[in-house]
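ligand=adenosine-5'-triphosphate
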Amino acid sequence: MRTRWIAVLRTPVGAGAGLLLLGVLLLAVFAPVLWSHQANAIDTDHLLQGSSAQHWLGTDNLGRDIFYRVLVASRTSILLALLATAIAVVTGLALGSAPAILGKRGGRAAIAVVNIAVAFPGLLLALFFAVVFGVGAKGAVLAIGFAGAPSFARLTQTLVAGVAERDFIAAARIAGVGRFRMLVRHILPNIAEPLVVNATIGAGGTLLAFAGLSFIGLGVQPPAYDWGRMLGESLSGIYVHPAAALAPGVAVVIAGLAFNLFGEAVAKGLGVQVPRARWTSRTPEAVPARDSDAVLVVEDLQVSFPGPVTPVRGVSFTIRKGEIVGLVGESGSGKSLTALAVAQLIEPPGQVTAAELSFLGAPLLGRLPVRSTAATRRRLLGTSFAMVFQDPMTSFNPTKRIGVQLAEGAREHQGLSRRAAMNRAIDRLRAVRVPAAERRAHQYPHEFSGGMRQRAMIGMGLMGTPALIVADEPTTALDVTVQRQVLRLLETIRSEDDVAVLLISHDISVVAEICDRVLVMYAGRVVEDLPATELATGARHPYTRALLAAVPDLDTALDEPLAVIPGRPVDPARLPDGCAFAARCSFASDRCRTEDPVLVDQVACWHPQAQAEYSSFRTGQR
Ligand SMILES: Nc1ncnc2c1ncn2[C@@H]1O[C@H](COP(=O)(O)OP(=O)(O)OP(=O)(O)O)[C@@H](O)[C@H]1O
C-alpha cells in the first residue's frame, strides 16, 4: 500500500498537490510562531491603508498588517476545519457502521437516521447546529462537524456493504467472529483507504464552510480571527482596499484546493471511488436429527427474496458422517443459495424457511431450544462447520497475515492463547500441505498462489474439528492440476477425520470424481439424487442425462459439435407451470407442462428414463 501512495506522489498532479498541502500545513504550524508580533502590531498612523512597500496588502482599521494576519490566521482556519472534519468522520463512521454492529432492527434504525439526515442540505444543518451549539468557534466546529456527518455515514455504509459481500467476511462470520471484532479487524482496515481519501477531500469543503460561518459572524469571535472573519470585516471596504478583502478569500481558495487536489490525486492514483438481508424463518419446533450419523439435515428448504422470487424451492437432503455429497447444476439453479442458507449467510431481505435445518442435531432455524443460546449455536458453527469459497483471492482479508486469520477463530471459540492459536494455524497449514508452513503463516494472502490460498482456506476450516465442510465451487478458479490437488485434499480429510463434505459444482465430472452421492439441482429443486457410482449408468432424469452427455472425454468425436443442453435455464422470477425443465426436454408431455413433478424414488420427473450407459462419460477416476 505504501508503494502505491509513493507512486501517487510521483505523478505531476500528486506531487504538486502534495507540495501545496505540505506548504499550507507548514504555514499553519509555523506562521503564528514567526509572525504573530507583526500581525498584531497596531499602527494608528496607518489605518486602512492600501498596498505599500511596508504593508504589501495594506492595513486594517487598527493599522495591523493584512499580509501577516492572513498568514497567521492560517492556523485557526485550518485547525478548526480539521477538527470539524474529524468530528464529521468519527460521527459518520459510527452511524455508518452501526448496521454492521447492531443487527437487524438497530441497523435499520441507523440506516433510517442516515437517510433522513442526508436529505437535509448541509448548509441548513450547519446553520441549525450553529444556533443549537451557540455562536463562537466551538459551536461552529460542532455545527460543521455534525452537518458533515451524514455524508460520511452514507459513504461508510456503502463501503461497509461492499466489503460485507466479500468471502473473507462470510468466512469470519462462519468462524463465529463477533460483530464488533468483525468491524474493527476485518471491515475497517479494508475501507480505511477510501475513507482517508474522502476525508481529505472533505477537509477542503469544511474549510470553505467554516470560512462561511465566520464570515456571517457565527464562527470565530474577536479578538481571535480566521480567514472567514477577516473576509467579513474587510468586505465593506472592498472597493477602497480590495486587497484586504481578497487576500483572505484567496487563502481560503488555495488551502481548500490543496486538500481537494491532494485527495483527488490520491483517489485517482489508488483507484478509490468517491461514492444486505438477515435471517428470518418459520419457527418450527426443534426437531432432533432422526439419524444419529446425520451431520446435516435439510428438509423443504426455501430461500426467497422480495419480488417475490424463490430461487430455492423445497430442497431436502441429509449428509452423513464422512460422506461427500455433490450438488450439481447449471448456473442459477440455486446451489450457492442452498449452501449460504445452510451456513446462515443469507442476509435480509432474503428469507430462509425450512421444515427442518439441523446441524449435528441442533436446529439452525427458528427458536432456540431451552438452555441453548445464540452464542452456543454460533460456537457450534464456528468449530464444527467450515465453508470454502470459489475465489481463493477474496476468501482472505488482504490486510492480514494468513496465520493470524487462521488463528482468529481458534482464539475466539477454543479460548487458545495467541501463541497456541498461531501454532495450531501452522500445524493446520502443514495438514493441508502448504510447504514451509511456519514462514507462510506470516505471509499475506497475495503472497500465496491460488491453489495454496484455497488449501489455506480449507486449513482455516480445519482449525476447529469440523464435522462438515461446505465447498462452493472450490476448484473453479484453479487450473486442472491444482484442482485435482484440492479435490484430493478434501478426500484425504474426509477419510482421515470422517468429515462430511458438501461439494458444490457446475461441473458434473468434478463431482463424480470424489463424491459418494450426487444431488442434481434445476430451478431451485433437487431433481435427482443418486450414488456417484451410478452416474454413468443409473441417471434417470433427462436433465442429469443432458449434463452427463455434455461432458467431453477422449472418446468424443472432434469433428462433431459438443453436445449442449438446448435452451436456457429458467428465470426463478418467471417459473412456468409444471416441470421447470419441460421447455428444454425432448421427453416432455402435456402433463409435464401443467403438473410439477416431486422427488419420488430419487427422481423428480414424469418420464424418468431407463438406466443406460453414457459413451461420453466415465466415473472410472475414482
Ligand atoms: N440476492 C438475491 N436476490 C434475488 N435473486 C437472487 C439473489 N441471489 C441469487 N439470486 C438468484 O437465485 C438464483 C440462484 O442463484 P445461485 O447463486 O444459488 O445459483 P448457482 O446455482 O449457485 O449458480 P452459479 O453456479 O452461477 O453460482 C439465480 O437466478 C440468482 O439470480
